[in-house]
From TrEMBL:
SUPFAM superfamilies: Periplasmic binding protein-like II (SSF53850). It comes from the Bacteria. This is Sugar ABC transporter substrate-binding protein. Pfam families: SBP_bac_1. It comes from Streptomyces endophyticus.
């Protein structure tokens, strides 16, 4: 087995993993040798799975019902920012991480660098690779090495109140200029209505808008982590939203706060700009608004050259502590590509994930209750939008910490102290010490 490797030496500074034998543990012989005595006697392998995703219990139940040789022991954990990621990190330090863990795209590089997830490049079958949306697989692959399998990828779309659009005679905006014009019209209707909420806890939303405009906050060219969180496209996005904030045309508060739920529930917010997953969350949170919402493509800067960023999405990683990586990968592949897995997840009634396997789109369309969105086939819309996702986006190694810095500055900007641009610059400044503490070679750009 290879020994612990330098953070600088692995994958040319992209992940620099301290793997402690993870690569050799991926071989079939090692897996069989490390299986528990009870597993060898019974011929049944049990793997552990941690996730906060809606519908996971239903998925595991379906898998266990249809698989005799592998059984999954599922544990629901808090969402990542609510303690789930800390729980995973602590378990990995103690050497008892679950076999399979759910990790969102922004946090994956950090868990890879910390050696929590293992390199599964050789475990992903060619058949599965061919099925996965390339942009999604790219978000889990660093310098040619894969560290998780994408479950869903979430193109940002515009959820809008069709009943209120009809009432006031509003057209659905196609460009961001039209969106700003509509924001002024909505404000003039009175009653405290606003076109949307700028979420002060929304680092990932801001990242999606910046990605759409062409930003590249992180890249790993020339053997270093190059950081540019205030590049020209980001400045363009920051200036756009700053004008809406300064004009009192949008709400500025946390999307997770009770006030945000009230703004949606009372019809004060006419659009929600978020990932495809949010359709199910909206349906679950506000069943009384059934039939009032529709979904449209996100406004574009240049309609004839459409581009999108992603907002949300999860992946499944095999951890360094997994003793049966082949069994873990069999469960993962079934989760992300089998129709019964998606049916089971959608049966929870609280999910509208957009799968990274295009073969599952008809399954999603059929299983999702279209009545909430007035009979609209939202999965077909998601399919069209997913192909607009810009390729090449890279998340940084410490996005949770980076996000906290940015969101603190967003909250101050929303209260009139500072701007969105200063928030982006503060996030970059706050990110650099963390990257240097990891021993990574870094560069910064301010243009």
């Amino acid at each position: 087995m290879p020994g612990r490797q330098s953070r600088r030496s692995v994958l040319a500074a992209i992940t620099a993993l301290p793997l402690t034998g993870a690569l050799s543990a991926c071989s079939g012989n090692d897996s069989a040798a490390s299986a528990s005595p009870s597993s060898r006697r019974t011929g049944k392998t049990t793997i552990t799975f941690w996730s906060a995703l809606r519908g996971s219990q239903e998925v595991v139940d379906e898998f266990n019902k249809t698989h005799d040789h592998i059984q999954v022991d599922y544990q629901q954990v808090p969402s990542g920012t609510q303690g789930g990621y800390l729980k995973l990190s602590n378990a990995a330090r103690a050497g008892n991480a679950p076999d399979v863990a759910t990790i969102e795209y922004p946090q994956l590089p950090g868990f890879a660098i910390d050696g929590v997830t293992r390199d599964i490049t050789e475990l992903i079958s060619d058949k599965l690779r061919r099925k996965l949306l390339p942009q999604a697989l790219g978000l889990t692959t660093f310098e040619g090495h894969a560290y998780s399998v994408p479950l869903d990828v979430e193109p940002m779309v515009m959820h809008y109140r069709k009943d209120l659009f009809d009432k006031f005679g509003f057209d659905v905006p196609v460009t961001w200029d039209e969106f700003a014009d509509l924001a002024r019209k909505v404000r003039r209707t009175g009653g405290g209505r606003r076109i949307t909420l700028f979420p002060t806890d929304g680092m990932t939303q801001f990242a999606a808008w910046s990605c759409q405009a062409g930003a590249q906050w992180f890249d790993t060219s020339h053997g270093a982590w190059n950081v540019s969180m205030a590049d020209a496209p980001t400045r363009k996005v920051a200036a756009y939203w700053q004008r809406l904030i300064d004009g009192g045309l949008v709400y500025t508060n946390a999307s997770s706060a009770r006030i945000a739920d009230a703004q949606i529930g009372t019809g004060l917010v006419l659009t929600r700009l978020s990932g495809a997953w949010d359709a199910g969350a909206q349906m679950n949170a506000h069943p009384e608004q059934k039939g009032q919402w529709r979904i449209a493509p996100l406004p574009q800067w240049t309609p004839d050259k459409p581009s999108l960023g992603t907002h949300g999405g999860s992946t499944f990683a095999v951890t360094k502590d997994c003793k049966q990586p082949e069994a873990a990968m069999e469960f993962i592949e079934w989760q992300v590509s089998h129709p019964d897995a998606l049916k089971a997840r959608l049966s929870s009634g609280a999910s509208s994930q957009y799968p990274t396997v295009s073969d599952l789109i008809p399954v999603g369309s059929k299983a999702f209750d279209e009545a909430y969105y007035g009979g609209q086939d939202i999965y077909r819309l998601f399919e069209d939008e997913a192909h607009k996702i810009r390729d090449g986006w890279v998340w940084g190694p410490r996005m949770t910490a980076t996000g906290y810095v940015m969101q603190d500055a967003f909250a101050r900007a929303g209260a009139g102290s500072g701007t969105l641009l200063t928030a982006a610059r503060a996030a970059q400044d706050g990110t650099m010490p963390d990257l240097k503490a990891l021993g990574l070679k870094t560069t910064t750009r301010s243009t």
